[in-house]
Amino acid sequence: MTITSPSAVPAITRMPRVRTYAMTPPIHFTVDYAINPWMDPSTPVDTELAVAQWLKLREVYESLGHTVHVVDPQPGLPDMVYAANGGLSVGGCTVAARFAFSERAAEADHYAAWFADAGLGPVHRTADIQEGEGDFLVVGDRILAGTGFRTHRDTHAEVATLTGMPVVTLELIDPRFYHLDTALGVLDDDTIAYYPPAFSPDSRAVLAELFPTAIIATDADALVLGLNLVSDGHHVVMTDAATELAAAIRAAGYEPIGVDLSELLKGGGGIKCATLELRRLDSDVDVVGAEDVGADREADVQTIAEPHVAHNYSPLPVTAATAEGAWITDVDGRRYLDCLGAYSAVNFGHRHPRIVAAAIEQLDRVTLTSRAFRSDRLEPFCASLATLCGKDMVLPMNTGAEAVESALKVARKWGYDVKGVPDGQATIIVAGGNFHGRTISIVSFSDDPDARNGFGPFTPGFVQVPYGDADALAAAVDDTTVAVLVEPIQGEAGIIVPPDDYLPRVRAICTERNVLMIADEIQSGLGRTGTTLAVAHWGVEPDVYTLGKALGGGILPVSAVVANSDVLGVLHPGEHGSTFGGNPLAAAVGHTVVDMLAEGTWQARATTLGDRMHARLRNLIGHGVIAVRGLGLWAGIDVDPYVGTGKEVCLRLAERGVLAKDTHGSTLRLAPPLVITEDEIDWAVDQLAEVVGSSA
Fold this sequence. Notes:
22 helices, 30 strands
């Protein structure tokens, strides 16, 4: 077979539509019997790998703004992971499956009960056999229906009557393609991709007439279930093994997203088999039950609200209009307690009057000169920040990533000019699980695949060792090592607090081996953990600090590298710079922040309120929460995966008026502004307790 020529496909702008899916995790997945040609009980199945692949698929859907509802898996029903076979939800009608094989028969009752509990009733049952979206695929205002191996032809008429939609019968003739969704994929309301040899001659003629511009799959792509795909009208989630089909889909204006679901292929299923779409007549009626109410409606708003914004974030469906203190008000007038604090950038609350006043005053004077001239605000700002950090020199920049990049450059220059490392051979040791930004050099030493994949080639010169392992760090230091870059507490990784001896040992190793210790305090510093700088909890003073986020007072980006002159003094005019770095407006705001921190009240507040927050959070352990970590007003909360993903919990919290952010699966981060009150902390934890099913 050949693929439709890309040149024959007109250039069309493909628009995504937010979808709602049901999925069942493969916790009990095995291949103990054979009911299709793909299944071989003698082939070992790695259930743990199947779960990991399934979680990745779910993560992809959620990253695209779709909502995933989880159906509880049942012991003894290994094929329940193929949720698409559980039924059909379309036009306000839900039809539960009636399975052809006794091995799967019990699944029907479980799915029917879940549909009813989720508010998708009334739930219909057909007289004859049909296996849901395995054989019923919705294409615009019609349903394509497969028959030949599983679904009985008579159910096509039943489904047409129940849904009120025309049903087109298609006969499958190749047992390898026993369900329609294995041989045909729906791309949007008008377009499909399919594999003609799977169909009878009459059915091929029907498809050719209905879809003259369809994409035709090759033998190779069909045999890896490349057509078992899920599309939102723009993004096409499909197996990463169907490369030619992916190229044809891309040429047709869609964006294919490859996912490895190879373990589920051993049971004869793929991407679509694991995904049941839930459709309703009224988009304001939400599926309820185990998931958050209103997520679909909010996700629709999210997609519509930002059609011209690059999709490098998957924000919660809250559109801020105003903010003050610890509260954000959305465009509909609903108030939310901000427990994220813009990843510590809003440590002092939204629009703190003192910081706003400093910005307004400077706006009336001068905002930007570039560093081609001096400004009267720069030296006072740098002097005050250097004093706060116990250093004598500051390199002002804008964003946190710029501060880290600048520190890396300084460390290399110091290594060549001061330590005597041969030119071009300097190396810097970093920690596993790190997050220092997303520039090319920084992602070069990240171990986060989302940050790295597709962005190579990468910058050399970095050596990664496990976070918290001082022995591994010591072993990695050699004559080319110029610096160790470390977060005192890892933020993006889930607020990971290191062993108590870790940072002191890092300091000792760096001193002994003549290596710079760089502490990335961009999230952990400036009062967040109860001290001005988080390293103070361990009595450690690094050679270099990188600062940002809170340094801008929640007003504008301000960052800095802070060190003594024997380190920062290696820079000379023309070797490094920034047009906006240290601009008068930034310096005025940053100086105000430093003055506020010099008073010490913010650090004390973070300590006292942090103790209260952590005590309340620890009471949730064993009640939907597995672990709590952090210091001060900074917490990482591991939620029991059976409660939901971190994003699902955040969506439910948002419905209750609390804003938080997830990271790495089922982990939440809390970093409320330091202006939050005890009562507000208690209220926020109460909402979390309700969401995770605890009464603590």
